[in-house]
């Protein structure tokens, strides 16, 4: 018996919607089994992992804080992946964006001006974009594989940040802690509501996602992204340039990752330290795929993945399992999303081999 | 089974009610066919009639849905090409099943018993290839070989297994007429040795010339069985197509206008290790003229199209001019704005994106040239989907594109209907210059006739048309002038009335190959 | 001193060589598995765990190999049977591997490990310099040498290896000739996984005999770059692996000497070197095109 795939003549609209949900259900199922093998009641565990964080106002704020960078980065990555540019170094672009965005508040800690925050955000975006420009340059100029270069640049960015906060940027009054001076209030991203910590980043994320959705749905630029991603040759026939698309998609996603980076540092942390991200740049890859590379879908999937972070923290406190479980959940989710996506393009059939008769090789 | 009773000679191969379904689509239904030992049997049918599906079942690549295959009167199940080879069936594929990165000997070794050492295979292959007049160097890499040489590898590979039946799928579509003649001699030699040949083709003359019996397929069913030598080309065509196909009508008396596209001293280096360099190409096409460029596949047709379309601009701006304007360094959209239209060879992934709807595929070719009609919102470039869909409807009506639904994805259309759309997409603009590469490759006869007529009509209405084609029938149907491309060089162009198949054949094979007897040197 | 440095270079290079060799076979069959990092870390954690439980690092080696192979099977099912995107699935494998290994290895953190002991080869190990370097090594090093030679022979001398190369060059043709493309690719993927697992076992049993979360530190990705660097040839993987080993060890020694360059910059050297090497090797488009297996990363759905 074997599984046989049969290509659908038209993409299944039903499964385009159902497949991410199916993936979620499968992830919960296998997650439950995992909790069970760890000796926990799977229902209690899943409850404290996925429901509890939604029941309190403060944790909803935390959810928005965690979803914002995931959505910002995920939307940028969706443009890369749709156009067949495999930027997997968003974590590095996030880090560099956080660094370049922090130059003003760290080096000019006495500067109190309403101008500082917009400047920080712009500098963060430029930093992230330039850092993503490195793999773009290497790909267009030297034909170098962007997957490997963008990933290598993540390690380099993290080491650079580590050096900065332990070296030149360290707060001299900071009791030798490897971190910078706290940002002045003017350099801190303001909160959205009075009820909690959630800051402007989530607003940026949703505005950006809607804008990119509009571009992909209604603008020639979006059409260009789709065509070049489907077939570079057809794109060339249309007069589109794959080379320019490398730059466009990489710079855009780098800028968004940079924006996420500086927003996180300015809004959530308030200073620069060696560790500024629980792997947002990598988790955003999952966000992009779970959202089916559609910016509106990515808003939803950003919140789902943010929940796995919060759930991990909550489950650690309430039922005493490691927060590493979140990473497992995230990995499982991406696996199931990718498998369920097969159903969009193919019909699956279980085929029994015809009874063996005659020669068989 | 009825085969064993009565008749003195049991057929080598009998096929009974062979059927293959892909989902709900019946590619072959209830096909019966017999091949006697020492017979060259033709399987005739147009593109999409089910010939390839049928032979893939004989060779064990596809599993039949229903029906029986009898080999020497015994029922067999051919589950893999290995089984087929063990029985004594050899196959020469239309789109070769070769590996470019491997040597000739390695390619052959892949279908033989793994115990035979490579050195022995190389030796046997070169002996055998000499015996059948198919010279081959076993150490050569396939990537460096011509299409004709590649076919030789396939034939030698099949012969090395000492087969009783050899299946050839459209073998002459990639050969010059002279190369085809040599192939026929090899086939006669095989017949003389008592081997059988199943010869798949849609070319009537060669079937009449070499085959002893024929089975005709249409839409997956047998529509006729005959001795092709007793039929006329017209009666065979009727069995194949089912109805009379409208002959392309044209009017050769029309006067030619000004030069619309001119190429002078065009050179372009090969972009990849597997591509052809273009060398000193010259051509001139006037309004009202159809210049057909003949040539065997892989002689630089794609590269010439790329240079003419501007998908890959060339280094010299003066080398190409459209309506008197030098355009060599301009891109495809700048050339479109000058009134040129282009139809590439590959439908899926070049002329069209399979996963996108027809309306998007219209925008693909015309987002720049029809910017005013299709885009709004200034710099934002917002697509006017309604206008694009209306134009899509207009084109589908004009070209009789049959489709299911209002705006299906390109991949859901049959080859012929998609090609009609792709050609119609350009005709809709009334282009001053149209460059088409292989306009009817893999297209059914009805669509092919319609497309050819459209090209002729376009020229008659005062446009210049360049048709690059491997199909000599097509060339004679549409051309006012004919040139031949070979190894990246283009011959001078001659009036169609002065050209014969033989002369084209010589130009195809020989222009720059001085070892060929009778080569024409046209420098 | 020289001997000690060369020994550490070999120890640093061995996991890179092994993981890259496995990936090389996978890619020669036309499959791009970007999950090397994930399979490697699974191999590392399972090898460490099995060694702690049984007390035998040899059981650990087997566990590492098995973990890598089983984990790669997940990749195989997704990309070969369900035709999921190979790039995305490889990333998924890495993300899942890093998460799962962290979860599994949580209780191992801080435990002292058991180091795999060298197996000196009689007589040969007494040769000055070469003896201690090449013949007083552990089993995994010997395996890496056998793998280099064996895979070279397999790919370029054996008929099965010819089939693998054929599948990587043109899977449609291979299918038409009756080669079972999917089955062969499953084997190639699992071989790649087993090698990555073995490489991971070397990390947690030889290189640093302990369990540290994320201890592969990008080595799986460097192995992927090595395959490109080696233009898909096993002997060049050996050369490239040792080059990277030398860079890694060189920067460690430089850090120890305290030559005034911040340690973070030195730590970044292997990653910078990877980028530089990729630039050098990729900039000639023609040679890259000739060397890359033509069907690498492309999905294949056989029709029956």
| Rg over CA atoms of chain C | 19 Å
Could you say which overall geometry of chain B the principal axes of the C-alpha atoms support?
globular
Give the CATH H-level superfamily of the largest domain in chain B.
Answer: P-loop containing nucleotide triphosphate hydrolases
CATH class of chain C: Mainly Alpha
| SSE pattern of chain C, N- to C-terminal | HHHHHHHHHHHHHH
Mean pLDDT of chain B: 88
Ordered list of secondary-structure elements with their pairings:
The complex is a heterotrimer of chains A (361), B (523) and C (304).
Chain A: E1 2-7, H1 13-37, H2 42-51, H3 57-82, H4 90-107, H5 116-142, H6 146-166, H7 201-218, H8 220-230, H9 232-237, H10 242-269, H11 280-290, H12 295-319, H13 324-345, E2 346-351
Antiparallel strand pairs in A: 1-2
Helix pairs in contact in A: 1-2, 1-13, 2-12, 3-7, 3-10, 3-11, 3-12, 4-5, 4-6, 4-10, 4-11, 5-6, 5-10, 7-8, 7-12, 11-12, 11-13, 12-13
Chain B: E1 13-22, E2 25-35, E3 40-44, H1 51-58, E4 66-71, E5 74-76, H2 81-87, E6 89-92, H3 104-109, H4 118-131, H5 147-160, E7 165-169, H6 177-192, E8 196-201, H7 204-210, E9 213-218, E10 221-226, H8 233-241, E11 259-268, E12 278-286, E13 290-294, H9 301-309, E14 320-322, E15 325-326, H10 332-337, E16 340-343, H11 358-366, H12 371-374, E17 375-376, E18 382-383, H13 385-399, H14 415-427, E19 433-437, H15 445-460, E20 464-468, H16 472-478, E21 481-486, E22 489-490, E23 494-495, H17 501-510
Parallel strand pairs in B: 3-8, 3-9, 6-7, 7-8, 13-20, 13-21, 16-19, 19-20
Antiparallel strand pairs in B: 1-2, 1-4, 4-5, 9-10, 11-12, 11-14, 14-15, 17-18, 21-22, 21-23
Chain C: H1 2-28, H2 36-54, H3 57-81, H4 86-104, H5 130-135, H6 139-157, H7 159-169, H8 171-176, H9 181-207, H10 219-229, H11 234-257, H12 263-267, H13 269-282, H14 285-291
Membrane topology (chain C): Multi-pass membrane protein
Transmembrane segments (chain C): 29-49, 61-84, 139-156, 186-208, 220-244, 256-281
InterPro entries (chain C): ABC_transp_permease
Compact description:
The complex is a heterotrimer of chains A (361), B (523) and C (304). In chain B, 33% of the residues lie in helices and 23% in strands.
